[in-house]
């Protein structure tokens, strides 16, 4: 599988990251193992999970995805070949409390959470550890100092953030530079080919903005990752309508061009979206998900799709 660097000088990771959000809950153990095996056999090494996955699927608190991954890596004896990412900050401290009861990003919460994640994952280090949701109630210096301590201790090898605004990412990087802390090497945001409507509400999730894209373009040391790149199947499945946050004339115009490029290339809509992300500027690393081996295979084949610069230009400029 094609490899990309996580930022200008970061570690090499698979161009398609496998999201493990529902593994161990909505996606049962048998299918989760099938998908993991299929991804690794295709040359993939980049797995994305979180300590709060997936509390909304019945348990009230997370940990199920990490637990399953730990069991799978132990059974396959392949931890050294996996680039493992997990997150802290959004797991409920009270079962059923949801995001209002999230653990946050205090020094105490981070140190407690990392040890719990390491235990569930049955490993002594995490390759990439994210601040999952920004915590405005805790000074950034405290959060970044805690992350730096984890890097210094060897429990974590790199750090990133998710669901942060551009100005917060810049502030965090400035603090890290002035204090000699490990910097955020990447940011993972909601991002897809369709653009959200003005004022679209995603609750705790933050969508990539034009400002963020320009920031990443001029800061090559930071990698951009996209979650929900395929809008949960809305590009291809009749039973999955386009989310209301994306509907409107702009979406209709972009879908029309997407359909044109799909016909020209012989690729599916999903494959064109993923290929666009990987070949656009800035390069975006998609976090893909699948609920069947067929879906995963379709996504993996996006790496074989070639888009011309003219096609990328048409996709970028499509609007109403």
Automatic annotation (TrEMBL):
Positions of the NADP-dependent oxidoreductase domain: 16-318
Gene3D superfamilies in the record: NADP-dependent oxidoreductase domain
Pfam families: Aldo_ket_red
Protein name: Aldo/keto reductase
Superkingdom: Bacteria
One GO location term (cellular component): cytosol
Signal peptide interval: none
């Amino acid at each position: 599988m094609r490899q990309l660097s996580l930022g200008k000088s970061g570690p090499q990771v698979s161009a398609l990251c496998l999201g493990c959000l529902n593994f161990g809950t909505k996606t049962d153990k048998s299918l989760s193992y099938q998908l993991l095996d299929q991804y690794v056999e295709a040359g993939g090494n980049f797995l994305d999970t979180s300590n709060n996955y997936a509390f909304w699927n019945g348990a009230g608190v997370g940990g199920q995805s990490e637990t399953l991954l730990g069991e799978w890596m132990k059974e396959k004896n392949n931890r050294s070949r996996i680039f493992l990412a997990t997150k802290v900050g959004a797991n409920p401290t009270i079962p059923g409390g949801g995001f209002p009861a999230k653990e946050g990003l205090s020094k105490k919460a981070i140190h407690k959470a990392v040890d719990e994640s390491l235990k569930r994952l049955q490993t002594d280090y995490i390759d990439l550890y994210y601040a999952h949701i920004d915590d405005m109630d805790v000074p950034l210096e405290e959060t970044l100092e805690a992350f730096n301590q984890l890097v210094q201790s060897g429990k974590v090898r790199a750090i990133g953030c998710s669901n942060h605004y551009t100005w917060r990412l810049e502030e965090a990087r400035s603090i890290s530079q002035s204090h000699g802390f490990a910097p955020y090497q990447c940011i993972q945001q909601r991002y897809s080919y369709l653009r959200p409507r003005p004022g679209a509400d995603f609750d705790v999730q933050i969508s990539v903005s034009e400002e963020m894209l320009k920031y990443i373009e001029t800061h090559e040391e930071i990698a951009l990752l996209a979650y929900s790149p395929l809008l949960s199947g809305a590009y291809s499945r009749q039973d999955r309508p386009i989310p209301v946050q994306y509907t409107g004339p702009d979406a209709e115009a972009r879908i029309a061009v997407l359909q044109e490029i799909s016909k020209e290339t012989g690729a599916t809509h999903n494959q064109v979206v993923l290929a666009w992300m990987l070949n656009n500027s800035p390069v975006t690393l998609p976090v893909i998900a699948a609920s069947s081996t067929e879906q995963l295979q379709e996504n993996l084949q996006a790496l074989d799709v070639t888009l011309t610069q003219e096609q990328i230009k048409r996709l970028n400029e499509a609007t109403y």
